[in-house]
Amino acid sequence: MRVFANPVGTGNLWFDNLSTADGTPVGYDPQARAFVPMPPFCANRERIGCNWIAPEEGAFCRSCAMTALAPDPSIPDAISNWAQTEAAKRWVLDNLGRWHWFRPEDPGAPPVFHLLAEGPTPVPMGHAQGVVTISVAEMDPVLVTTRREALEEPYRTMIGHMRHEIAHMLWWRLSLREDFLDEFRTMFGDERIDYPAALRYHYENGPPPEWKQHYLTSYASAHPHEDWAETAAHLLHLTDIADSFVATGLSSPQIPSASWDPYSEPDAGQLIHIAASLTVGVNHINRSMGLSDLYPFVLSEHARHKLAFVHNWLRRGAQGL
Description:
Helices cover 42% and strands 8% of the residues. The longest helix has 24 residues, at 224-247. The strands form 3 sheets. A 4-stranded mixed sheet has the order 5-6-8-7, with helices on one face. It has a two-stranded antiparallel sheet with strand order 1-2. It has a two-stranded antiparallel ribbon with strand order 3-4. Helix 2 (78-97) links the parallel strand 5 (67-69) and strand 6 (112-116). The protein is an alpha/beta fold.
């Protein structure tokens, strides 16, 4: 994620800022990719801290307008969890906007979000026909830790959920192209195999013994749809890590230049190599504070080929290039 200029003074602004250091209210303009010091602000600004601008007074911003179902406010912590979930959504949408997805120039359908609180039973997260369902309860640190350990997942965050489920929606968009489906099936396998049966088999038997040679995560081995979603999410992780590294002024021998833009990099192999190299260093920094690795994954050669495939299609897919 970029670091942004202060429109009314010196210093920088971060993506989630609602005001400058001296208290001047600001809003983020996702079209200009810049902060502005004047309304109209999103109608959700006071309720959940949305910092994007709106097309007119009293309207929702581009991101909040995509939320068709919001959590039941009577459920404990629903509103605070929803606020953090929407913040993660804005972050991921802005990342994808760097490749023109879901912006005005994108001729395809944007996602529709159902962001739901959990009552007595969990909310099943997923995607169907352009609708992305997310459990806002996944912002609860105790619940996330419990599920991370139960599912043996080394990484589980709301941004990760957003990237994974939106990736399913991106596949749905791209699958309208016959040339995409042919290439996808060659790389990932035939997604027409029974999905529920494949997931049942995965949860009952676990991944194949050699899964690390072919997949980024054990869950990716369950079905071609999940392999795509996990791989696309990881491409977004790696690209954003590299972009954030450059934006904060950090340097590394791996970075081609101080002005290098990972989202404009046409060479997938170059991007993946640089980002993966940076994660090794950042993981080492995390360990110095006794924290878990920021990116606890190893990229096999097969996984790198899949990442390159996803990179090719996400860079050109939004505008049908």
